[in-house]
């Protein structure tokens, strides 16, 4: 625990010290939280070869991280319902700042930077009302909270910036939880998830929902195409052997529709998608850790390919097409029609693999 | 310092803690061989006589042998997606009933062409479809006979192929982890993990599906969701699976000290064997439901012992991501 003095000191340091660039920390292309063989948690920087560029310790298990667009700085979020996030200097491993949610809020595990890197948005729960909100943090002054606005739904999970813009897609998962009951789901009968497009002022530009009969398909993870389409990864809250597709595609102004999945494959996934990444102009990939499956979808040909890898979950775009990581420490390269081993490390990679320098 | 010790243990200890040749030769291969034999016998029986009285004993024998090896979910069985085609379940939409009814309604000649039958819905290919035809026979007995023969031929072909692949290439792959060209198992740790995962996944399936589905909730028990209840096999699958998993652990990891795990298996097996409720219909009877709940708890208690006494010494922590759920 930081004392108030060192806390202030590090906050000041963040504003005073010239920022180090990503090139100066071994040119990592990706970030992931992980657990090492000693049971300690770390934030790792990975190169496109799958090698480790840097590692810095984390005090507890992380969920996702978000990389600053130009400074070698990452924000690592605690697992929900965590109330803190850590701003880490990826050059030195130094803790630059600990971000704490205001009273009555907790983080949901994801965040996104504005186009210029000056504002960080975080998905949060208003624990009193159960309504989701987005917290805004001022990067230049040391990640000081600027304010918040509603996320336009319950249980916002992943937030991503639409490429080239300051509009953001928010996956409002629809599931109401309260910290007093951990991760218990309080509203499965009435949940109604949505995908919302918002800007930095909190204006809602679009909202997309699935038909009512699919209201238990919780939207959790999303990835944006350069043209504003959003690939959607769902978690089905009904009978896992009676699950609809848990893959979807949002088109601006035209709502979200499910992408057809092979029924036999779906039978093995426990209704659970773990992560999603856009891998090309018309191509995306999804991971299903409970089925140990990574699947790529080609929207031009409407084709897909599935690969079996135990505990696979992290997935992100990369120069060679994509990278994926798993709980066994493996890094996989995703190419046009293959998933091949790239490297293996003595760690368990956590849920999400984050590409540094997205579009 | 602590970190260094853990690393050393993981590197030095793991190869000696599992016996892959024994797991293959004393557990896996004999089970695939038995399944190949009894499924061939089932096929032969059906060629001679399609009456339920004649077929039932051979059906039970082959289904038993499949359940005794169905926990081996890696290798040829995984590559062929056999788990679904042999035993499509859970089946909340009754895809089995619908697939069977559709072929019967159309008197679809696909059942007389083995190559074509291999391409029909998995829900129509395996034991659940055969069970349906045996226990709810369609009016067209001649077609039902052809259909059952097609299923038995398909099952016997799959069983023969699985045994053959294990006896040849895959059996070699399984015991040569880390060798050049072994892309399936890059190290002994990969094989250990495959075996461990087979046990932990099967235990989860027992708890959540085979017991959890019929149990439902106290206010809403779901006896009709029990697996293979039409042929009185629901409890039998639980007993066979528990015994199979205990044997796999014993043959694969016999050098490990597993007193708690052995005790947990013995307790669950004893409770299952004395349940006297073959279809688990008792879940809907408050007086008998209690015993099924106790069995489910006994199955649940096996997993922590497995984690502590097998997973921990091997450095395996199952499902870092798959169990996280976020």
What does this structure look like?
The complex is a heterodimer of chains A (359) and B (326). Among the domains of chain A are: 151-272, no CATH class; 274-359. Chain A is mainly beta and 359 residues long. Chain A is globular, with a radius of gyration of 19 Å. Residues 1-17 of chain A have low confidence and may be disordered. The longest helix of chain A has 13 residues, at 4-16. In chain A, strands 3-2-1-28 form a 4-stranded antiparallel β-sheet, with no helix packed on it. A 4-stranded antiparallel β-sheet of chain A has the order 4-5-6-7. A 4-stranded antiparallel β-sheet of chain A has the order 8-9-10-11, with no helix packed on it. Chain A is built from 2 helices and 28 strands. With 326 residues, chain B is an all-alpha fold. Chain B has 2 domains: 19-167, A middle domain of Talin 1, CATH 1.20.1420.20; 188-314, Up-down Bundle (Four Helix Bundle (Hemerythrin (Met), subunit A)), CATH 1.20.120. Chain B has 15 helices and no strands. In chain B, helix 2 runs antiparallel to helix 3, helix 2 (20-48) runs antiparallel to helix 9 (141-167) and helix 11 (188-215) packs antiparallel against helix 12 (234-252). The radius of gyration of chain B is 21 Å and the shape is globular. Chain B starts with a helix and ends in a 12-residue tail after the last helix. Mean pLDDT of chain B is 93; it is low at 1-15. The A-B interface holds A 35-40, 63, 79-80, 109, 157, 183, 220, 239, 241-242, 264, 267-268, 272, 274, 289-290, 292, 308, 310-313, 326-328, 341, 344, 346, 348-351 and B 2-3, 6-7, 10, 78, 81, 84, 90-93, 122, 186, 193, 197, 315, 317, 319-322, 324-326.
């Amino acid at each position: 625990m930081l004392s108030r003095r060192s806390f202030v000191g590090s906050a000041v340091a963040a504003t005073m010290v010239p920022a180090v660039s990503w090139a100066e920390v071994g040119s990592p292309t990706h970030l992931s939280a992980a657990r090492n063989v000693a049971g300690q948690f770390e934030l790792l920087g990975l190169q496109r070869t799958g090698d480790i560029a840097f590692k810095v310790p984390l005090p507890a298990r992380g969920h996702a991280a978000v990389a600053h667009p130009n400074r070698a700085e990452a924000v690592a979020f605690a697992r929900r319902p965590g109330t803190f996030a850590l701003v880490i200097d990826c050059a030195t491993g130094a803790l630059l700042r600990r971000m704490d949610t205001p009273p009555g809020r907790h983080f949901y595990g994801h965040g996104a930077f504005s186009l210029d890197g000056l504002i960080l948005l975080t998905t949060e729960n208003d624990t009193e009302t159960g309504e989701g909100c987005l917290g805004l943090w001022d990067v230049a002054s040391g990640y000081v909270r600027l304010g918040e606005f509603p996320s336009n739904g319950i249980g916002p999970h992943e937030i991503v910036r639409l490429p080239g813009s300051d509009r953001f897609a928010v996956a409002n998962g629809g599931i109401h939880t309260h910290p007093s009951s951990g991760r218990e789901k309080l509203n499965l009968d009435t949940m109604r998830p949505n995908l919302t497009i918002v800007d930095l002022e909190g204006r809602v530009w679009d909202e997309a929902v699935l038909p009512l009969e699919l209201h238990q398909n919780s939207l959790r993870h999303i990835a944006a195409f350069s043209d504003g389409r959003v690939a959607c990864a769902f978690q089905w809250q009904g009978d896992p052997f009676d699950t609809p597709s848990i893959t979807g595609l949002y088109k601006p102004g035209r709502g979200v529709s499910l992408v057809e999945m092979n029924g036999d494959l779906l039978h093995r996934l426990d209704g659970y998608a773990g992560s999603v990444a856009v891998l090309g102009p018309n191509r995306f990939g999804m991971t299903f850790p409970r089925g140990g499956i990574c699947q790529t979808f080609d929207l031009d040909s409407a084709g897909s390919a599935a690969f079996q890898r135990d505990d696979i979950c992290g997935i992100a775009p990369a120069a060679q097409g994509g990278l994926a990581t798993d709980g066994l420490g493996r890094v996989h390269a995703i190419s046009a029609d293959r998933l091949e081993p790239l490297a293996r490390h003595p760690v368990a990679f956590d849920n999400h693999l984050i590409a540094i320098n997205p579009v | 310092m602590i970190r260094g010790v853990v690393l050393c243990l993981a590197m030095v200890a793991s190869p000696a803690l599992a016996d892959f040749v024994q797991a293959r030769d004393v557990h896996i291969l004999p089970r695939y061989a038995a399944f190949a034999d009894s499924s061939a016998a089932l096929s032969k029986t059906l060629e001679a006589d399609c009456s339920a009285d004649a077929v039932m004993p051979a059906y039970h024998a082959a289904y038993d042998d499949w359940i005794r090896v169905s926990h081996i979910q890696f290798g040829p069985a995984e590559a062929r997606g056999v788990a679904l085609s042999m035993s499509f379940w859970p089946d909340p939409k009754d895809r089995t009933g619908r697939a069977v009814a559709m072929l019967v309604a159309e008197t679809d000649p696909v059942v007389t062409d083995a190559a074509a039958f291999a391409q029909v819905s998995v829900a129509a290919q395996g034991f659940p479809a055969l069970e349906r035809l045996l226990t709810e026979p369609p009016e067209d007995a001649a077609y039902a006979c052809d259909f059952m023969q097609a299923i038995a031929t398909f099952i016997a072909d799959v069983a023969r192929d699985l045994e053959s692949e294990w006896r040849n290439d895959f059996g070699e792959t399984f015991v040569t982890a880390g060798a050049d060209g072994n892309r399936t198992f890059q190290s002994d740790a990969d094989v250990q993990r495959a075996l461990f995962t087979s046990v932990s996944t099967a235990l989860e399936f027992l708890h959540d599906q085979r017991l959890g589905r019929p149990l439902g909730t106290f206010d809403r028990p779901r006896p009709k969701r029990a697996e293979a209840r039409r042929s009185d096999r629901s409890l039998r699958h639980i007993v066979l699976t528990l015994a199979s998993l205990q044997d796999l652990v014993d043959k694969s990891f016999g050098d490990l000290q597993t007193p708690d795990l052995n005790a947990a298996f013995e307790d669950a097996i004893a409770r299952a064997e004395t349940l006297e409720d073959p279809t688990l219909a008792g879940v809907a009877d408050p007086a008998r439901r209690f015993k099924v709940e106790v069995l489910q708890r006994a199955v649940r208690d096996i997993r922590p012992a497995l984690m502590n006494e097998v997973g921990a010494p091997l450095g395996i922590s199952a499902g870092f991501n798959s169990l996280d759920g976020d």
